[in-house]
Amino acid sequence: MTQALEGFLQALSAGILIGAVYGLMCVGLGLIFGVMRVINFAHGDFMMLGMYAAFYLFTALGVQAAFGNAFGPFVAILLAGPILALFGYAIHLALISRVSGTRTSALEGEGHYAQLILTLGIALILQNGGLIVFGSVLASIRTPLSSSAWVLGPFFDISIFINKARGIDAVVSFIAMILLTLLITRSRIGKSLRAAADNPTAATYMGIDVDRAHRVAFALGSGITAIAGGLLATNYPFHPFVGVEYVIVMYAGVVLGGMGSIIGAFWGGMTIGLVQQMSTLILPTQLQNAAIFVVFLLIIFFRPQGFFGRVVERT
Amino acid sequence: MLRIEALTAGYSAIPVLNGVSIDVEQGQFVAIVGPNGAGKTTLFKTISGIVQPSAGSIMFEDRDLLSVPPAQRAHLGIAHVPEGRQVFPSLTVMENLEMGAMTEAGQRDWKHNIERIFEWLPVLAERRGQFAGTLSGGQQQMLAIGRGLASSPKLLMLDEPSMGLAPTIADFIFERLIEIRRQSRLTILLVEQRVAEALESADHGYVIEAGRVALEGNNQTLRADDRIRKAYLGM
Ligand SMILES: Nc1ncnc2c1ncn2[C@@H]1O[C@H](COP(=O)(O)OP(=O)(O)OP(=O)(O)O)[C@@H](O)[C@H]1O
Ligand SMILES: [Mg+2]
């Protein structure tokens, strides 16, 4: 009995920890989709770039030397955010803005096809370019914290182990999410992003440059997912094709949260993390991903608009 | 203040406006009336930069408006209260008003503006925390007007503020507009289906039919015109 309870609590805490990172990862995509209504197939590959950015910052560019083995990785990961945000900004300026925003508002359907093809193309280029530049060897951002744990308890003979790296990953994710929520709900920039998402034409009448708002959202979303990717990389090795594995989780999270809801995307990602870890209690590990999609289908069946689907319609 | 000359505009290949010329002087209240599909909304969209004209010119305070990017036009002092209200549904009433105040002048005058807006349209003060998407049609229209006023505009453009509203609500909104105009002396360009009311309170009027100015004149000449009396005033 105690053992079962201990196993349950252990899986629950593992689910919350990984769920927070998944949540952050999904929020990056959710922000882009929510504001721009663009489906970015390359988002997983942006995350891969974020992982490598953190990796090279840490190993080759002096962050390890300056901040040490334990916390250096987290410094490198946080720095990868702005780098990928700049990258996203440039990609939007050079490519995405040509097939989205005000340029295509007149030709709704055709704009979407062009977006699909363009972002798929970017994804392929990044994956194969990554293979050439980074090679196919698995990389990882190692910190000694990945192999040590905090012990909670014992409370009545029950102890829970919290992997230190994962614990910090989750805390960083929650803090990033809180800051982002404040930015979106309170700041002028955040409000104008939401206005541009609600009604781009009316936003233009207000003097909001909608294409610029999209660029900000795209940069912000890319940076956030890059940070989430770096955090994952402290526990999971990665390679140039790692984006393909995660992009599905990202889309599932965004759909679960309710397409267009930024905060919903976080809880969507959290749900996936929880289901993934809890399923190990009753299912063999190979079936983790199957469990995620069974739960995904069930939730979508009973609540097609997702957790935070919009109650008010776009005009 | 606003001088539109020989404007031709439309969607893709379909021409809608055909050589329209309109003048709005500083402090004037100008009304535009005309049947459905005449091109009134298209005219407003062209002024705001959403529709590109193929010929003609638009000057705003001696500035070539057509060379100003659409998102910059609000910052010059043009507030567009669009047809069908188009409030931001997932933003609260207050946030919608803040979006109106994105312009520099709107930022500067925010405190003063918001006080006056709440005084003119008290329902907005009562509902300030409510999501705009959950307001009634009349309340949304008042919000759209308040949002326009929050930018401290030099020119307020209103596209059918009475559209789709019950007559008593439409009357109320019209009465509010007259009051706002009386107190603020704002320059107003109004498109309206309620021709009698519009022509009665405006200084100057234009009748647009099938993309052309069919008739124009001051308040008395238009109301005395036989064609207007027959076609629009039902006399
Ligand atoms: N986005 C669009 N694409 C193609 N044609 C359009 C578009 N919007 C309007 N039109 C056409 O342009 C013409 C003028 O429309 P507009 O909305 O300017 O008329 P209006 O005078 O505002 O009419 P109403 O009084 O009904 O609002 C109409 O024939 C309409 O079908
Ligand atoms: Mg119209």
Explained architecture:
The complex is a heterodimer of chains A (315) and B (235). Chain A has helices spanning 2-36, 43-59, 63-94, 108-134, 164-186, 188-198, 200-205, 210-233, 242-257, 262-282, 288-302, and strands at residues 149-155, 158-163. Chain A is mainly alpha-helical and 315 residues long. Chain A has one domain (2-302): ABC transporter involved in vitamin B12 uptake, BtuC. Chain A is globular, with a radius of gyration of 20 Å. The N and C termini of chain A lie far apart (55 Å). Chain B contains 11 helices and 10 strands. In chain B, the strands form 2 sheets. Chain B has a 6-stranded mixed β-sheet, with helices on both faces. A 4-stranded antiparallel β-sheet of chain B has the order 2-1-4-5, with helices on one face. In chain B, a hairpin with a 2-residue loop joins strand 9 (204-209) and strand 10 (212-218). In chain B, helix 3 runs parallel beside helix 7 (137-149). Bound molecules: adenosine-5'-triphosphate (ATP) and magnesium ion (MG). Adenosine-5'-triphosphate (ATP) is lined by residues 11, 14, 16, 34, 36-42, 83 of chain B. The site of magnesium ion has 5 residues of chain B, from helix 1.
